[in-house]
UniProtKB/TrEMBL annotation:
The keyword Phosphoprotein does not apply. The keyword Transferase applies. This is GNAT family N-acetyltransferase. Residues 1-133 form the N-acetyltransferase domain. It comes from Nocardioides baculatus. InterPro entries: Acyl_CoA_acyltransferase, GNAT_dom, MoCF_Sase_C, Pyrv_Knase-like_insert_dom_sf.
Length: 341
């Protein structure tokens, strides 16, 4: 079909043999097959923030029979059941069986200036290396599988926000053993060197550090549990936020200036300290909770309150559990100036 429109594709990436089905099945995600023998398939990969339709293929003699549409719908349903809030893909903007087909099936083009996740950037880089752009404009498209909170809903929610300032509660401990995976823990162990033991923090590159090393001031991400609940709309999706500690506590700059301590689990428990590194919404946050949510947490209502969360590091090791008290110890106020006395 590509050759009928684009001409001779000898030696072109579009004419290369498809990836073996066993190789596809070995990746995180799933493969759906239509017919027996097979007349089409859909391969969906689970990336670090969402589901991605890596390939949809139907044999030419079986096209225009609704098989492609049925595979897209089945893929979207399966991804939603797995807890994903959106399904993305890359395609040609102007070929009729590419972007126009997906638009009829609920996908919309992702704005070129929208932040991309690391996985999305890698996919785009691979397409560029293969030279796919020479045949036409490549675009990202997204189908929302679960309605995200709107700007109006977020404004209404924040108007009711009333969090404890001095003594809060740890509501969830979430470990990320590898990017894209989550483990909700009944007991977590905080370590001065490792952060949350078993978490992948220490393997994650940081662009602002020499040689991309992990930043020790970003060991832990702490987020307001009430906002996680509101955005996720389902307890099974709360872990997708990507923050290791979810707390019921006022995280605002006014309440927790940098270097405030959070004592978790009593006087002999773990202690973490709030660092100066900002924690901003990103491409993964958009994929999970929508663009309105990212605009909100990075905007005039969310930023001062640190509604996207804060960065912290462990200064005293200890065991933490959901339900533990979180006691705030603020740094001493700077001494008043006596210049001119």
């Amino acid at each position: 079909m590509f050759e009928a429109v684009l001409g001779d594709l000898t030696g072109d990436a579009l004419a290369s043999p498809a990836v073996d089905g066993r190789e596809r099945a070995a990746e995180p995600g799933f493969v759906l097959v239509a017919g027996d023998p097979a007349v089409g398939f859909a391969h969906v990969r689970f990336l670090d923030a969402h589901a991605h339709l890596d390939q949809l293929s139907v044999r030419p003699e079986h096209m225009r029979q609704g098989i492609g549409t049925a595979l897209v719908e089945a893929a979207a349903e399966r991804a939603a059941l797995k807890g994903h809030g959106s399904l993305t893909l890359t395609t040609y903007a102007d070929l009729p069986w590419n972007a126009p087909f997906y638009a009829r099936n609920g996908f919309v083009e992702v704005a070129a200036d929208e932040p991309r996740t690391a996985s999305q950037l890698a996919i785009s880089a691979t397409e560029e290396e293969l030279g796919l752009e020479k045949h036409g404009r490549r675009i990202w498209m997204r189908r929302v599988l679960r309605a995200h909170r709107t700007a109006a809903e977020l404004d209404a929610w924040v108007a009711t926000l009333d969090s404890p300032r001095d003594v809060g509660t740890l509501r969830a401990v979430v470990r990320r053993p590898v990017p894209g995976q989550r483990e909700v823990l009944e007991v977590g162990h905080l370590d001065v060197t490792a952060g949350l033991v078993g978490d992948s923090w220490s393997t994650r590159a940081t662009r602002h550090m020499p040689e991309g090393r992990p930043d020790p001031d970003m060991q832990l991400n702490v987020m307001h549990h009430g906002l996680v609940q509101f955005l996720a709309q389902d307890p099974e999706r709360e872990q997708l936020a990507g923050d290791q500690l979810h707390v019921d506590l006022d995280l605002s700059h006014a309440n927790l200036p940098a270097w405030s301590e959070l004592h978790i689990g009593g006087p002999d428990g773990a202690v973490i300290v709030v660092t100066e590194v900002p924690h901003n919404g990103c491409g993964k946050f958009i994929a999970r909770f929508g663009k309105d949510a990212m605009t909100f947490v990075n905007g005039p209502e969310g930023k001062p309150r640190r509604l996207r969360g804060l960065c912290a590091k462990v200064v005293r090791p200890g065991t933490v559990r959901p339900g533990d008290e979180v006691v705030v110890v603020r740094p001493p106020a700077p001494a008043a100036s006596h210049v001119g006395e």
